[in-house]
Amino acid sequence: xxxxxxxxxxxxxxxxxxxxxxxxxxxxxxxxxxxxxxxxxxxxxxxxxxxxxxxxxxxxxxxxxxxxxxxxxxxxxxxxxxxxxxxxxxxxxxxxxxxxxxxxxxxxxxxxxxx
Amino acid sequence: xxxxxxxxxxxxxxxxxxxxxxxxxxxxxxxxxxxxxxxxxxxxxxxxxxxxxxxxxxxxxxxxxxxxxxxxxxxxxxxxxxxxxxxxxxxxxxxxxxxxxxxxxxxxxxxxx
Lengths: 115, 113
Known about the structure:
The structure holds two protein chains of two kinds.
Chain A: E1 3-7, E2 10-12, E3 18-25, E4 34-39, E5 45-51, E6 58-60, E7 68-73, E8 78-83, E9 92-98, E10 104-105, E11 109-113
Parallel strand pairs in A: 2-11
Antiparallel strand pairs in A: 1-3, 3-8, 4-5, 4-9, 5-6, 7-8, 9-10, 9-11
Chain B: E1 4-7, E2 10-13, E3 19-25, E4 38-43, E5 50-54, E6 58-59, E7 67-72, E8 75-80, E9 89-95, E10 103-104, E11 108-112
Parallel strand pairs in B: 2-11
Antiparallel strand pairs in B: 1-3, 3-8, 4-5, 4-9, 5-6, 7-8, 9-10, 9-11
C-alpha cells in the first residue's frame, strides 16, 4: 500500500523559510516521479512542483519559481520542498503525491504564512 | 497554460440517482503518444484527494464500478451511476498532457439533496 507522510509545516512570518518532507513507503520510490500539490484554505488544488526519478528534471508553477526548490533522496525514500521568501498567498495544505498523475497522496501538512 | 473548466460547480443529487460532471480543457488533451492524460479525483470532507480515474476512463484499484470516465479531445465526463452517501465531496479533473504546469479544474461539490 502506498504511504506518504508529510511533515515540516507550521506558522512562519512573511519572508521566512520552511522545509517540508515527505516519507514514502509501500512502493519503489526511486521508480516514480514525485509531486507537491497545495490547497489554500477553502480553495481548490494547485500543482506546485515535480521531480523526475533521479532528480535530473524539476518543474515548478510560475508563482513559486525562484523561491521553492524540490528535491529527493532515494536512499531515504524521501521528498522535500524547500520554501523560501514565503508570502501570505503560500498559505495552504501541502500534499506530497506519487508521480505526475498523483496516483497516491499523503495526508498533507499545513503551512501558514502570517505575521 | 491549459485551463480546465468544470461544470456544474455544485451538484445536488438524490441518493440512488445518477450524477454527471463535465470537464472541458482549453486545448486538446491528446498527447503525441496517443494517450489523453485526463484524471479525476475525489476529495471527501476533511480528507486528502484520492484518484478515481486516470487517462480518461481507467478506474483506479478499489474504485467502485459505479464511477466511470469518458470523453476525448477537450470534453470529458465523470459519471456516477447511482450516488451513495459516501460519494459526498468535491471532484476535480486534472490534465497532465501539456505541462508544466499540470492544471486542475475548479472542483465540483457533490451533495445529497
